[in-house]
Each structure stands twice: as structure tokens, then as C-alpha cells.
Amino acid sequence: MSKHIARKRFGQNFLVDQQVIADIVNAVAPQRGDCVVEIGPGLGALTDPLVKRLDHLQVVEIDRDIIARLKKRYPAEKLTIHEGDALTFDFGALTSQSGVQMHIVGNLPYNISTPLLFHLAGFAEQVRDMHFMLQKEVVERMVAMPGTNDFGRLSVMLQYRFVMDWLLDVPPESFEPAPKVDSAVVRLIPRPAAELTVRDEPRFAALVSAAFGQRRKMLRNNLKGILDDTAFAALGILPTARAEDLSVEDYIRIANSLQ
Questions:
Q1: Span(s) in the chain for CATH 3.40.50.150
Q2: Three-class SS of residue 81?
Q3: Which CATH architecture has domain 8-193?
Q4: According to CATH, where is 1.10.8.100 located in the chain?
Q5: Contact, 130 vs 117, CB < 8 A?
Q6: pLDDT at residue 3 tops 60
Q7: pTM confidence score
Q8: CB neighbours of 129 closer than 8 A, spacing ≥ 6?
């Protein structure tokens, strides 16, 4: 089979480090009958060991050349290929009939990782866990603590919905072609419904987005028209604080106080 050239427009960097591959698959710990979905299988670095450990694997892939390679390499009874863009793919449809929760895994393209994480958060109820290779700076933002420069909209929205663990760092030489950035592997486990105390999720998302709209500005300015000084005082939050100074719980309290 001819060598596949990585495509810049799909953000392709193929994982080739066998130790890292083994570490990721062991972290996923797939059992024979599990519903596992791989995003962007590429040249099969994770696909091969997953197929060996599963009765059946599902993959989502946009690159037609890679789809053709996958069809030649794996029989249909072992691999289902969903052709299309993961950013618009309905992951919920994969478990709607069976009701089985899915494990999602992937070496996510750097150019779509943040919007893809937001898209996947919408299917959290149907997910057992997710294991992703991401740009290290994205993982830093995901797990950042309040009061730090990395703490932002991504931190709040994902920490509200998931428990996250930074599992391992991956250097550029683990990929072909080598990216210009370091990578990391992160695990996301959806929080149980009882912990999701936001009453109006679209309102919560809009609030967080507004708060971090202009990071250098005070919350009094960013949340103008949403909260006045009296409302800030009632919540025990300083209107002169900046968005990164508040905790996830603070944002939940603010969202739930809004009528």
C-alpha cells in the first residue's frame, strides 16, 4: 500500500511511538464487548491494538484515502467506519439502540480539538470515558485551577461536566511528521447527573462565555447587563474580580441566581 502523506488541512500527525500507543490502549483498558469509538484512526496506530482486544470497533474518519485503506485492512465485521466530520457527527446515535455507554478515544487534530471537546460534551450522558491525545497547552487549559492564566472558558465548561486526569506527556518525536508542539494524553470521565446542578445549561454556557469575553477586564464590565453590583454583593463576589479568579462553583451559583 502506498505511503499516506499527512494532510495539513485535517491536522494530521500520526502517532508512531509504540510505548505511547501501548500506554494509551492500557489506559482505555477495553473489554471484548465494549462499545469503543475512535476519532481519526489515521494509519491505525491505536486502531490495530484496539481491534485485537475488541469484538468490534467503530471509527469516525473524514479523509477518503484513509477510509479506503481501513476498508482494505479490516473486515466489516471487526470495524465500522463512519465517514464524515467528527465536529458534526451524532455520537449519541451509536448507543441510542443498545443503551450501552461508549468509550471514546483518539489522537485529536490540533486544529479542531477545542470545538470537538465542546461537541463531545453534549453526549456526556452516553459516555463511560474518553481518552484523548491533545496539544499539551490544551490539556493545561482543561485541567487549570482558578486564579491561573490557563484557567478559562474551556476549563470551566469541561470541569463542570467531567472529572479529568492528565495521564502522560508525549514529545514531538512520537509522531510522523513531528509537530512543533508537545502533546499530552488526558482522561475525561463524565460526572454523575446528581453533581450537575446548573438549572439552565445554555444560560450557564452564555454566562461563562461572556465572563471570559475580554479576560483583562473586570467582571463588572464583562457581565454588564447580566449582573449589577447589588447582585454581585448578594452572591459574595467582587465585581472588580476577573473571570479567572472565580471557581466553577461560583459560575454555577451566578447562573442559578439569574432569572
A1: 8-193
A2: strand
A3: 3-Layer(aba) Sandwich (3.40)
A4: 201-257
A5: no
A6: no
A7: 0.91
A8: 28, 103, 104, 187, 188, 189, 190
CATH fold label, 201-257: Helicase, Ruva Protein; domain 3 (1.10.8)
Q: Which amino acid is at 21?
A: I
Per-residue three-class SS string for 148-184: CCCCCHHHHHHHHHEEEEEEEEECHHHEECCCCCCEE
The DSSP bridge partners found for residue 242 are 218
Q: What is the mean pLDDT of the chain?
A: 93
* Whole-number Cα distances in Å, 76 to 15, 47, 181, 252: 24, 14, 36, 45
CA distances from 77 to 66, 74, 83, 184 (A): 18, 8, 17, 32
Q: Tens digits of per-residue pLDDT, 105-157?
A: 999 888 899 999 999 999 999 999 999 999 999 999 999 999 999 999 999 99
- Report the alpha-carbon distance of residue 151 to residue 251 in Å, rounded: 13
Residue 130 C-alpha cell reads as: 474518553
CB-based contact 46:105 (threshold 8 Å): yes
The residue among 62, 49, 179, 46 whose CA lies nearest residue 106 is 46
Q: Would you state the cell numbers that stand for residue 252, as one nine-digit string?
A: 454555577
User: At what angle are helices 248-257 and 201-211 packed, to 10 degrees?
Assistant: 120
Residue 5 cell numbers, joined: 502523506
Please state, in angstroms and as integers, the Cα–Cα distance from residue 49 to each residue in 30, 54, 125, 132, 136, following that order.
Answer: 10, 9, 27, 16, 24
Determine the Cα–Cα distance for residues 20 and 185; give it in Å rounded to an integer. 9
